[in-house]
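Example record

One chain of 79 residues, shown exactly as stored in the release files.
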Amino acid sequence: MPFWGAYWAQPWGGFWWIFPLIGMVIMVVMVFACLRMMGGMWGFGCMGGHGSHSGGDVETLRREIQELKEELRKLRERS
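Predicted structure tokens for this chain:
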């Protein structure tokens, strides 16, 4: 009997090529996604870009955060 054994490879003997193929497909998809994100394109599928929010949205969120900070400061002063 060979050192590596003859029994473990028999059921998958004809399908060994599928695992590297699946790995290569995953690698190609990830490289494509990374290149799109670095190239300034608008994301990949469900990933949004950085420019998807308008300036008004950001300003509104900053104003709300400031209001919440003021409310917290008032609550701390009361207690």
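Notes: The mean pLDDT is 78.
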